Amino acid sequence: MVEAAAKDFLNYLQFQKRFSPLSVQAYENDLNQFQSYLDQNYSGSGLAGLSHHHIRDYLASLFEKGLSARSVNRKLSTLKSYFKYLCRNGALEINPAQKVTGPKVKKALPNFVDEGQMQNVFSELTFTEDFEGRRNRLIIDLLYQTGMRRAELLHLQETDVDLYALQLKVLGKRNKERIIPFNLGMKNSLKHYLELKSAAGLNNPFLLVSTKDKALTAVALTKIVKDVLSQVTTSSKKSPHVLRHSFATHLLNHGADINAVKELLGHANLFTTQVYTHNTIEKLKKSYYQAHPRSGN
Known about the structure:
Blueprint: H1 3-16, H2 21-41, H3 52-64, H4 69-88, H5 115-123, H6 131-146, H7 150-154, E1 161-162, E2 167-171, E3 177-181, H8 184-199, H9 218-229, H10 240-253, H11 258-265, H12 270-274, H13 277-291
Antiparallel strand pairs: 1-2, 2-3
């Protein structure tokens, strides 16, 4: 793999496809890992000498290292995109990844927190009244009430918050902007938080900051979410994305239009959103089997 070709591909993702920095970094890591494998096992093999055999051997090595089918498929997707780009630009005549198929992945339903448990977060848990306590409660509330991704919340700036129109301006994947509404309770929480932030002399334009006036990191935010959810659920999944799943599942459980949920989540197509309907169906099945006299249970 020629370094210049890989660099051109990454620039294409960043500046033309407008992928996020995190996504571009993930693609770069995948390409570097594949290159390391080639260097160790097929020394001297250039781009023109690559075939589907090289890629299949690489995928097999990933399985031997214990990677899941989902992770292997993601790395294969990177290679397919890369070689397709090279063919389209004349750097390769034949796409070596074209004949390679990824392993089947067992579809798992999105993990979410029960509605009652989420209610306990706001009614039973105690958050301190200082800046950090107010910030941490706001983080949970924003993730659950808006369904934002972690990166979207971290990049939210004060100017993206419209307290008068009761809405947030969110920059999602591929720099796609969307508007998410919030209620009066959230308005009061945001207003109080911003007042505490100002009083503490924290002037960073990002909405969520540390006590040192630095933009909150992904690691710090994830720890906050995990610490809070650990107090209300025993589920092994306690990430910010679980709150996004909870947001979508609870909306659909209460009859929200799936197209509206799609727009709120910032999904590119309806198929991605439909995965949450499975949770709703499972809930309906459970209610049926528990309550109907002819259900056989």
